[in-house]
């Protein structure tokens, strides 16, 4: 059996290069950009009026003029007008082009308009007040977003404003989630006394979904032949296969044996960790294509922990997304004696800017209800048994709290 550190090294050194594809902007949220995005014009593209009011020429103001004849109105979305007489004004609306020969905008709150005459009630004006000057935010051809950026709503706004209705992003890997087990029935079914509803596929598919990955769910019973046939099809069609169950020592735990028969190269089976000890990992190479297989132990807490500790960081690495390394400090002394890395379930609290991990002890890796009480796993290293309050350890969070 290998250590957690060795397992992470092996997983992370077997990433894929997904390639790229072009997609429409309305489908781009959460995807990773594969091209630099340049400003197609200055930001803003013209001298933009920032307040509803009147536009005047500052020289007229300096010459003492406070009463202005309203020549016309410049609204947003209409071509630039020209102030024909500098002692006059033009009514202007937010978002409009500043009229030619005008360099000051005075807001309506500081103006009294009677008929066609505007009286200004402020004591001072400054050149280009209430004007958002052309090119002051960004210049044409500036790089606005660098490639490899994961797209959030802020990047989507920029892509829209520069007219990118389609963008080049990292191709989505084809992902299959496969649960195994005769005791498992679907969510719509009423289990017999000896059965349970399968939850791992739903947990994994939703964990993928919140991280921007589509996947297809499958279920296969513990029958060698069927497992062999169905897994062959899945392994040949998908880039990533995440299995749950069937990897331990049981008489019907066929998954490792079947995978090896399908020419999946085993990279490890068994990690010195709790939960998740029987975790199996391998790769099937077929000419230019390859399939990566995470066969996770079936106990729901093990499946969950292994996904967040190994599979999600692997996916992030494939997509060029940084894996955040966060630590939290233990709220109380904790003891764990076996020579294994222990992934302690914890609740996270922010305490005076410091992340505090409060142990939430469940009844082992079958106690999936305990996932509700906790937020994360605190990774306590092997080789020691006493962990002191205040000590910091890496934390793997499955909630959006941090
Ligand atoms: N003799 C030994 N027995 C076991 C060992 C061991 O080292 N020696 N390891 C234990 C550990 S640790 C784990 S974890 C489990 C792993 O078992 P498998 O990966 O073979 O998984 P299964 O046997 O198929 O199922 C285990 C458990 O999880 C439930 N399960 C499975 N899939 C789902 C699902 N999709 N949704 C909900 N629950 C699921 C299943 O009903 C079982 O109760 O083995 C220990 N045994
Ligand atoms: O490794 Mo198992 O996940 O402890 O129950
Ligand atoms: Mg088993």
UniProtKB/TrEMBL annotation:
It catalyses: adenylyl-molybdopterin + molybdate = Mo-molybdopterin + AMP + H(+). GO terms for cellular component: cytosol. SUPFAM superfamilies: MoeA C-terminal domain-like (SSF63867), MoeA N-terminal region -like (SSF63882), Molybdenum cofactor biosynthesis proteins (SSF53218). Pathway: Cofactor biosynthesis; molybdopterin biosynthesis. Its EC number is 2.10.1.1. It comes from the Bacteria. This is Molybdopterin molybdenumtransferase.
């Amino acid at each position: 059996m290998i250590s957690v550190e060795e397992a992470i090294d092996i997983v992370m050194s077997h990433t894929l290069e997904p390639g790229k594809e072009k997609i429409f902007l309305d489908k781009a949220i959460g995807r990773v950009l594969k091209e630099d995005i340049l400003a197609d014009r200055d930001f803003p593209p013209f001298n933009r009026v920032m307040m509803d009011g009147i536009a005047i020429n500052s020289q007229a103001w300096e010459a003492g003029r406070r009463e202005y004849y309203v020549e016309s109105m410049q609204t947003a979305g209409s071509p630039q007008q020209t102030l024909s007489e500098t002692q006059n004004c033009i009514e202007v609306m937010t978002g409009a082009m500043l009229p030619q020969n005008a360099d000051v905008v005075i807001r309506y709150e500081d103006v009294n308009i009677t008929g066609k005459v505007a009286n200004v009630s402020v004591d001072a004006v400054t050149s280009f007040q209430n004007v958002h000057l052309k090119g002051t935010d960004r210049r044409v051809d500036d790089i606005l977003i660098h490639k490899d950026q994961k797209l959030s709503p802020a990047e989507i706004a920029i892509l829209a404003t520069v007219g990118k209705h389609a963008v080049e992003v990292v191709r989505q890997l084809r992902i299959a989630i496969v649960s195994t087990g005769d005791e498992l029935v679907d969510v719509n079914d009423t289990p017999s006394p000896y059965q349970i509803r399968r939850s791992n596929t739903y947990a994994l598919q939703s964990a993928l979904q919140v991280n921007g990955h589509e996947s297809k769910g499958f279920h296969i019973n513990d029958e060698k032949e069927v497992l062999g046939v169905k897994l062959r099809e899945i392994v040949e069609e998908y880039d990533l296969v995440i299995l749950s169950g069937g990897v331990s020592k049981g008489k019907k735990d066929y998954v490792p044996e079947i995978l090896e028969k399908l020419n999946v190269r085993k990279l490890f089976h068994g990690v010195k960790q709790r939960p998740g000890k029987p975790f199996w990992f391998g790769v099937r190479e077929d000419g230019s294509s390859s399939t990566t297989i995470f066969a996770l132990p079936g106990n729901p807490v093990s499946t969950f922990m292994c996904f967040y500790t190994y599979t999600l960081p692997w996916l992030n690495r494939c997509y060029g997304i940084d894996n955040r390394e966060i630590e939290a400090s233990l709220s109380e002394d904790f003891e764990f004696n076996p020579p294994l890395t222990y992934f302690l379930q914890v609740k996270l609290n922010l305490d005076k800017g410091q992340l505090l991990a409060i142990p939430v002890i469940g009844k082992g890796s079958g106690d999936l209800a305990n996932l509700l009480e906790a937020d994360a796993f605190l990774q306590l290293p092997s080789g020691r048994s006493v962990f002191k309050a205040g000590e910091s350890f890496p934390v793997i969070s499955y909630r959006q709290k941090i």
